[in-house]
Amino acid sequence: MNKIVSHLRISLQIFVMMLGVLVFNSQAHAAFGLLETAEIVPAGVYRVGAAPQLYIGNGGGVDGSAFLDLNVGPSINSRLEIGSGVTDFWAAGSAKWVPYPDYQNQPAIGVRGKFIYMRESDTNFYNTQIAPIFSKKYSTNRGEFIPYAGLPITFIYEKSSNNFTISKLCFGSEWVVNQAFHTGAELAIDLYNGGSTYTYTASTLSLFFNFQFDERIGFKK
Question: From CA 95, how far away is CA 221, in angstroms rounded?
Fold first, then answer.
């Protein structure tokens, strides 16, 4: 119980710290969230996953995405993803670098760079994102939990040259059910929107599911 309380306290502290960085704004978009911790997938191991995402407010709505995680270096992961729903279509590729792993009392600290292509009606968007990520493992009698938080800042480029920036606060937790299967949840809230009609006045609640396999034996059991 004490570990769970500590895990919640650290998540709340990160939340309050990041909330003070920018003025709160309730607009949000699911594709610009995190949906991952600062943990690194080991070399030779792959993860496939899915993430349904629910808009809270503004009439609601649902997005969904599928993704593949793979190791590309000692402290670097890459993710490929595609999604659709309220947003007509998006595809993304990202690289996550974690120079400071989770060790004793130190949380894992990393940064993710991401490119996102989006299509909404007849408009194309070309987006680049930078996101610091923090996470910390905690063991309980129900398994291992990894609370995390991050601040993705996304630069939006429209074909019409209407360019703007969106920043979001994301926090959640991943539950390591077993070696083969992880699940988790995330709440994402916009902190700043530089100005575009391409937004939804809603927070986003997401679930995600990861299934692990390796290059030798396929899906782990």
Answer: 27
Q: Are 28 and 188 in contact (CB under 8 A)?
A: yes
CB under 8 Å to 75, separation ≥6 — which residues? 40, 97, 98, 99, 101, 110
Highest mean pLDDT among 5-9, 76-80, 117-121: 76-80
Alpha-carbon distances of 140 from 1, 40, 106, 146, 177, rounded to whole Å: 8, 21, 18, 11, 11
- Model confidence band, residue 179 (pLDDT cutoffs 50, 70, 90): confident
Distance CA(137)–CA(140), nearest Å, equals 10
* Residue 153 near residue 129, CB atoms below 8 Å: yes
